[in-house]
Amino acid sequence: MGLKRNVSLGTGLKYQGGGPMLVFVLHRIGGLGMAIFVTIHLLASFMSARGIEGGAFLNSIYENWAFQVFIFFCALFHAINGLRITILDLWPRLIPYQREAIWIEWAVFLPIYAIAVFIIVRAGLGG
Amino acid sequence: MLVTLKIFRYNPEVDKTFHYETYKLEALETDRVLDLLEMVKGHTDGTLSFRRSCAHGVCGSDALRINGRNHLACKTLVRDVGAKITVEPLLGLKVIKDLIVDMQPFFDNYKKVLPWFVNDSPLPADGKERLQSPEQRAIFDETTKCILCAACTTSCPSFWGGEAYLGPAALVTAHRFIFDSRDEAADKRMHVITETDGIARCHTVFNCTMACPREIEITKAIGELKMAMITGKV
Amino acid sequence: MTTHQFDVVVVGAGGAGLMAGLYASRGAKTAVISKLYPTRSHTGAAQGGISAALGNSEEDNPEWHTYDSVKGSDYLGDQDAIEFMCYEAPQAVLELEHMGLPFDRTPEGRISQRPFGGHTNNVTGKPVRRACHAADRTGHMILQTLYQQCLKNNVNFFDEFQVLDLLIVGGKAAGVVAVDLATGELHVFQAKAIIFATGGHGRIFEVTSNAYAYTGDGAAMFLRRGLPLEDMEFFQFHPTGIYKLGILITEGVRGDGGVLINGKGERFMPNYAPKVKDLASRDVVSRAIYTEIREGRGVNGSNYVYLDVRPETVNKFAALDGRTNPDGSPYIVTGEQILQKLPDIIDFCRVYLGVDPVTQMMPIQPTAHYTMGGIPTNKFGEVVIDDKNTVFPGLYAAGECACVSVHGGNRLGTNSLLDLVVFGKHAGLKAAEYAQQAGFVDLPGSPTAEAEAQFDRLRNGSGSENGFDIANEMKKVMFDLVGIYRSEAGMKEAIQKVAELKERYRKVRVSDTGKIFNTELLNMWELGNMLDIAEVVATSALNRQESRGGHSREDFPKRDDQNWLKHTLVWKQDGKLKIGYKPVTITRYQPKERTY
Amino acid sequence: MANKSKNLSIVGRGLTNFESIMWIFTRLSALAMYAFILFAIIGALVMGARTNMNMADVLRWGFMPNVTHVQSTALEDTGPFASPFWKLVASGLLLIAVGHGVHGLVVIADDYITSERGRGIVRIFSIIMILSMIFIGLYILWTS
Ligand SMILES: Cc1cc2nc3c(=O)[nH]c(=O)nc-3n(C[C@H](O)[C@H](O)[C@H](O)COP(=O)(O)OP(=O)(O)OC[C@H]3O[C@@H](n4cnc5c(N)ncnc54)[C@H](O)[C@@H]3O)c2cc1C
Ligand code: HEM
Ligand code: SF4
Ligand code: F3S
Ligand code: FES
């Protein structure tokens, strides 16, 4: 009787959690992205070092500027947001100011990321 | 004003799956969404099913997803959500019929944190109350407000992932007792909430705090529990 | 159909039902059945406090409490029961504290108390701090605490089971029939003792502080089984409900210094109750508000007045009244303290009115609030069925659905929560005691027949009438004509109208044919109960030709102890209401004129 | 009035649970990574990155102060990074980051996989992953 647990990735993402939920999702994507990247990357380095075929190919994926834009987002966002989480976790008294914390976080993240993207893209397109 | 009300419908005895039904009705700005549901049920479609009792936000019966976010239907006025209103059941629990979900997993999680006062020491010699200063009382005041409506737990992405996660409501209850100076089972409760699917599952998403109709600072309460886990001070 | 067997079955899981369940389960196999999850019972809505003469911050004693309650009841309360309750009160409240209830605290760490309407220092006549409170959600904390203790003690719960019928065989209680809302299946609970704690029936009125669930199910079942109901004409209208919505603004607001202001900006309560002013008994204040409105002093000529708890107003009038703190210093509050003492009230006003009570006045109007009458019981919670107080074997009642009668013509604020814990406990104890020596009564051949017949009627009506409209018409007519002020012509019209509505109700057809959560069917079944109860209320009210407590007749404005110092009993026989009487127990306090 | 606050023992506060230990580790490793990264970037700057390092390199050097880290890096003098000291620093960062990252993956998996069996498989998989990543990482670091 009854519909199965009424939730899917889609319905979950559509929940109007607002700013805090957005940064959570991005943090998760960032962490996941980096973890996968680091795994592949280690593998590639290992293969190159041992002269196994394919290492160079794997390396060329992330030499690609589009990929760099993505992975830089993952690293920078995850790092900044991770710092926010760590601070709030260790000082629960600051939690009532979490909205402000998120604003500050974006204020720090956006300019740095914008400059980085600009440089990466310019370098990427310029050759 | 004319309100368009889109409601999630599912009748287990007829339908294979859910669908949405749209109703148009005349309403006042100060009408509660619950009033609208009552109107639809009274005049348009008697089969529409939902829970409600107190009608002023103190019993916790009618937590629903309204315009994509959890609210109590009786504490949400038309003027708060506008003329286009979508009403859906809570996420992460089985839908039994229309807007009614199976609350069992929610209450099961609640029961895991030993939600009752424990003090086996002898009573004060005069037989009167156990003393507690206003300051000690204030520490857990917020978390005594919980009405077990489940708006928080069903807004939490960790709970969507799996109902094994205790969820914010159970943690709020744990907080209410752990920080009560008269209670003597703090260590047992800490044990429960630090196990797998306990507080470590909370990723400070804040959906719970925003959904709580009693305006409990849930994430803060959970944060205090996390601190208690580290320092041992309650 | 599933059959269960329990020594004791408790119907209702509010404060009274949980207390009864907790105590009964210590001595007998007990089940608690509730149509709502227990924590959603209406006890959770109670705000202001629970009274007990603890004397934590000033002198007080149970004797004063007894006298205040007798006087509050307009001398209709049974004095032996009132005395019993008031003397049990301190222990009852301390027991709640020992169960972990988080009361607010005094600086010394004791339970904090606040003044409440009608509770006085009998020597000075001034309001006394007797209401023990947990902010403005005392009932919520009682409900949660009792539920938690029940879980701790492994009480058997049947949540979301609605009881439909009471089974009586050979003059003894045999069991109840309930429907499991989630499956629509009927369950029969065979029991030696049955405790009813189903709450009141305020939903028969249009503007009410009561929950949707307050449909008088328990009382209606008793009526259908030929058992009497007591003092049904007495219904309390609380003076301060949010305008139009009826949501309650606790008396604690006035206890903490709030005052009532009419359309001309004047404080009017001193004209009606010179001594305790805004803290007079509820019936007195409600009538005062109505009188102001009728004489054209409502706000903007409308039917509401203001309740003002802004710090500057509170401090101004507290100084005028010479009000002091327990330590003798003048009483002064700040906006922050108001916020801290009344968080929920302030939240209600912000959400529903868009008004902030710390800086603005709240528009209020009297709201239907509390059922004084109900199932007649003695002070042990045993159901009694006639003027000689003959006990009906195996039947118990406690809480708002019962009439002990400790509230008589008018309940004092905070006495209801006390009533729940005191009489809930004793009903539980008595029921378990009875169950230990009694045997099961055989169930009738087809125990669910009556319940099924009622459902069938609702499923097979012609469908030419709409139940929702019938309910609204009933509420309106009851509020307008059998409300705060009553007159013969009005009540006759109301009885006529209710009879008509009952006729129309037969033509209702439920469109939902399913079994799972058929809330339409159950709502319509509840409407039947409400119509039955409305008829009883209006008929009893028409019959009582005097004004007393919450029952104010324009054509008989005076209390008449000569003819009417007695309880009303109403039975339903062959579809007709029969009225009888029962003497009031008077022990120490002879009736005298009631002034505040 | 008893005004003392309660003090829970290590066991009493649940600090012996794997979940709580890892929860704390995640925060501490996050802070530690910040320290390492800052240290490494400053190191890179001292070693001459001031003049010819681009944005992507900051990240590369920050996250892994090692000579082999991406062939295209345009630093002229990477010599000092080959010293045992920097190798040790890089190894420390490697251990912490892999621990943090793989446990992070387990946390994500646990959010969606609630069966005992499923979680067991994830655990085993994560151990294999941690060990092999550390092995590979150390191999690259110390053989270059
Ligand atoms: C807004 C408000 C504020 C109040 N403030 C105060 C106060 O400050 N102090 C004070 O002393 N009193 C106060 N009161 C009054 C007091 O709260 C109530 O009288 C009291 O809580 C009633 O408790 P109860 O246990 O009788 O009923 P409830 O708590 O309402 O419980 C009724 C139970 O019966 C169950 N039930 C009903 N019908 C059925 C059925 N057919 N089958 C199965 N189960 C059924 C329900 O599910 C519920 O569990 C207040 C009341 C209101 C409305
Ligand atoms: C400065 C660097 C970093 C900081 C400050 C940081 C901080 C954090 C924090 C605080 C969390 C816990 C989030 C939570 O429990 O809600 C987390 C989770 C995680 N981190 Fe990091 N981290 C950093 C670097 C990394 C790196 C390099 C990786 C990848 C190898 C990584 C992968 C993950 C993953 C997969 C999670 C789990 C994500 C989730 O639960 O949603 N992190 N990080
Ligand atoms: S914490 Fe708030 S949202 Fe969660 S159950 Fe309690 S009242 Fe509802
Ligand atoms: S939404 Fe969930 S993740 Fe934590 S802060 Fe609230 S419990
Ligand atoms: S109906 Fe009680 S909370 Fe909405």
Summarize the helices and strands and which ones pair or pack.
The complex is a heterotetramer of chains A (127), B (234), C (596) and D (144).
Chain A: H1 9-14, H2 19-49, H3 55-63, H4 65-90, H5 98-126
Helix pairs in contact in A: 2-3, 2-4, 4-5
Chain B: E1 2-9, E2 19-26, H1 33-44, E3 63-66, E4 69-72, H2 78-81, E5 84-88, E6 95-97, E7 100-101, H3 104-112, H4 134-139, H5 157-161, H6 167-178, H7 186-194, H8 207-211, H9 218-231
Parallel strand pairs in B: 1-5
Antiparallel strand pairs in B: 1-2, 3-4, 3-5, 6-7
Helix pairs in contact in B: 3-6, 6-7, 6-9
Chain C: E1 2-11, H1 15-27, E2 30-34, E3 50-51, H2 62-72, H3 79-98, E4 113-120, E5 127-132, H4 138-152, E6 156-159, E7 161-169, E8 172-180, E9 186-196, H5 217-224, E10 229-230, E11 235-242, H6 252-255, E12 259-261, H7 269-272, H8 282-294, E13 305-308, H9 311-321, H10 335-341, H11 343-353, E14 362-371, E15 375-376, E16 382-384, E17 391-397, E18 402-403, H12 415-437, H13 449-460, H14 467-481, E19 485-486, H15 488-505, H16 519-543, E20 552-553, H17 561-564, E21 566-573, E22 576-583
Parallel strand pairs in C: 1-2, 1-9, 2-6, 9-17, 15-18, 19-20
Antiparallel strand pairs in C: 3-5, 4-5, 7-8, 8-9, 10-21, 11-14, 12-13, 13-14, 16-17, 21-22
The complex binds flavin-adenine dinucleotide, protoporphyrin IX containing FE, iron/sulfur cluster, FE3-S4 cluster (F3S) and FE2/S2 (inorganic) cluster.
FE2/S2 (inorganic) cluster is lined by residues 52-55, 57-62, 72, 74 of chain B.
